Amino acid sequence: MNTNQQEALSKVPEVTLIFWIIKILATTLGETGGDAVSMSMNLGYLVGTGIFAVIFIVAVIAQVSAKQFHPILYWTTIIATTTVGTTLADFADRSLGIGYAGGTAILFTLLMASLFLWYRTLGSVAVDTVSSPKSEMFYWVTIMFSQTLGTALGDWTADTAGLGYIGGAIVFGSMLAVIAVAYYRTNISHTVLFWAAFILTRPLGAVVGDFLDKPISKGGLELSRYSASAVLLVLIVSGIFIFSHKPAKQGH
């Protein structure tokens, strides 16, 4: 099978620096956008989760049904996972009274279970093996759990652990830097490092998003959630159209 045929099978992007930049912007948008619907619009976490869950389901169905890689569709689905992750985690942590630590523990267990079942079913959780409807479904369910976990973990770090939004951003940013060094300097599985980085970008986006829109008295900048979300969306769309996005090469 030639390279073009291999790439046509993949509907997820090649992992590059711009991938990670857009991913962090998307997770930050998920926080400000999710809060805009549930808080600024006063719809509540449950209604907000319902709205974003419908968007998420529609986006995943469109992504799985697509015949080839479409950057706009892929990143729309990513944004859908991160917004539903924000409202779902807030609903579980706050409305159900589970708390940040409890929500983090439950979601981490669900995430690990998703990865385990994916590996046991298909033999690999590497991004370059995502080329069938079954692997895509595992991929998106795993991502949804990771995005929800990231929200709970970010809130737990900033609030319960008392590090604040800037402190949380430094912690998660430093952890991502360590993963980047490990990627180039060690023999640790690149698949493991990918998922570790993918998971950690979400709490980084969560604390940065909270820093942008939370009250000054709580350590935030108190910017408009609508304005912050609009700016982040423009940056994401610009990144999609300005930079080249290729599908991941299968088996690499």
From TrEMBL:
Listed InterPro entries: DUF347
TM helices/strands, residue ranges: 42-65, 72-92, 98-118, 163-184, 191-212, 224-243
Alphabetical keyword list: Membrane, Transmembrane, Transmembrane helix
Source organism, top-level taxon: Bacteria
Keyword check for Membrane: yes
Signal peptide, first to last residue: none
Pfam family, one: DUF347
Name recorded for this polypeptide: Membrane-anchored protein
